[in-house]
């Protein structure tokens, strides 16, 4: 198979879909890998490292897309890449289609097989390709939030850890999954007072045990969420419904009652965000204010630490890349139920239920299409 690795073009996206280590394994297995010039440069993987392990460096993105049987990326394609789509192309990347109707339309019109990292499942039913970036984003959210609480960035001027004689800052984390758990680790490590809100009482019990009672746990309902965010200096949104748009758990009214100079970091923004006042931002223009509250809603937060993020992501994605390359997309989908869960578009059909519901479209299960 010919595998293409284009340079990411989303604003300040500095990760890369395959590392030199991955290229070597693919080449050793008899595949051909095309890497766009400087695709790995910002992740500290220069072209000569790719060439040394057998990759072919290609000067133009159009050649990578045009020659590849499968394109492996990090982030969802942006409008300038839509023209590269063609029938029969396999695209393996984060797609986050629920809020992106135009991208969905184009993938369907061009009959691209779109396999989304964020909906692939393992045998335990978890989301192995979402987990590493959720870990990075969760940890980074507190680091970013602490910086934006500084007066220079429009924040309240609060040091999260406090000092002797001065209480620490209050951090409210919405969602007790991978993002929330990792955010709590860093917030506690910085000395903050941490409140974690989740709908699942069993998960709250687990978190209480994990953190030995140092995290305040709250059952999620509108009353508790409002009280928690109004007391918070930093609110982190980490709610996920796989493949679907995130629910708006923090309303405009709640935000208007928050402390002036408080900070919101909505990690769920690439699925539409769980804060009603959140809108997608970029690394070049990362924040804005609503009712005196600073909002940081960058859709590709892990790109701020691309070397760590690329290594963490490709550790998880590469076994799937290898299986898709070895078997071809159709055979891999038939053999591996987890890869089948990752298929969002196939030969002009929308195949993922949560995306269909979010966009009010019809869908056809991939199992039904492949059984014909």
TrEMBL record:
Keyword tags: NAD, Nucleotide-binding, Oxidoreductase
Residues of the active site: 96 (proton donor/acceptor), 270 (proton donor/acceptor)
Q: Name one GO molecular function term.
A: nucleotide binding
CDD domains, alphabetically? L-AlaDH (cd05305)
Q: Where is the Alanine dehydrogenase/pyridine nucleotide transhydrogenase NAD(H)-binding domain?
A: 149-297
| Chain residues that bind substrate | 15, 75
Q: Residues in domain Alanine dehydrogenase/pyridine nucleotide transhydrogenase N-terminal?
A: 4-137
Q: Give the Enzyme Commission number.
A: 1.4.1.1
Q: Which GO terms describe its biological process?
A: L-alanine catabolic process
Presence of the UniProt keyword Transit peptide in the record: no
- Keyword hit for NAD: yes
What is the name attached to this protein's record?
Answer: Alanine dehydrogenase
Organism, as annotated: Granulicella mallensis
């Amino acid at each position: 198979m010919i595998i293409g690795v284009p340079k990411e073009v989303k604003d300040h996206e500095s990760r890369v879909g395959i590392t030199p280590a991955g290229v070597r394994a693919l080449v050793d297995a008899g595949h051909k890998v095309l890497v766009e010039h400087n695709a790995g440069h910002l992740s500290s993987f220069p072209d000569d490292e790719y060439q040394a392990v057998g990759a072919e460096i290609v000067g133009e993105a159009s050649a990578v897309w045009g020659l590849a049987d499968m394109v492996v990326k990090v982030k969802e394609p942006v409008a300038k890449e839509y023209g590269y789509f063609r029938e029969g192309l396999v695209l393996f990347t984060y797609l986050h289609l629920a809020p992106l109707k135009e991208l969905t339309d184009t993938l369907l019109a061009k009959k691209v097989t779109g396999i989304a990292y964020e909906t692939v499942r393992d045998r335990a039913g978890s989301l192995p390709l979402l987990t590493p970036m959720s870990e990075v984003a969760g940890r980074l959210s507190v680091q970013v939030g602490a910086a934006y609480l500084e007066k220079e960035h429009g924040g309240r001027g609060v040091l999260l850890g406090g000092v002797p004689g001065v209480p620490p800052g209050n951090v409210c984390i919405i969602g007790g999954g991978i993002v929330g758990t990792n955010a709590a680790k860093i917030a506690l490590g910085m000395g903050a007072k941490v409140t974690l809100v989740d709908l699942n009482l069993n998960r709250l019990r687990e978190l209480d045990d994990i953190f030995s009672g140092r995290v305040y746990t709250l059952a999620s309902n509108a009353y508790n969420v409002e009280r928690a965010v109004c007391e918070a200096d930093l609110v982190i949104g980490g709610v996920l419904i796989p493949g679907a748009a995130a629910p708006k758990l923090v309303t405009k009214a709640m935000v208007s009652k928050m402390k002036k100079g408080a900070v919101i970091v909505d990690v769920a923004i690439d699925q539409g965000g769980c804060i009603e006042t959140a809108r997608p931002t970029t690394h070049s223009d990362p924040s804005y204010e609503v009712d005196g509250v600073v909002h940081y809603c960058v859709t590709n937060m892990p790109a701020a630490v691309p070397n760590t993020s690329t290594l963490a992501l490709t550790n998880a994605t590469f076994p799937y890349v290898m299986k898709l390359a070895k078997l071809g997309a159709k055979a891999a989908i038939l053999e591996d139920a987890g890869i089948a869960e990752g298929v969002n578009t196939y030969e002009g059909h929308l195949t993922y239920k949560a995306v269909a519901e979010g966009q009010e479209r019809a869908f056809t299960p991939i199992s039904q299409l492949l059984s014909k």
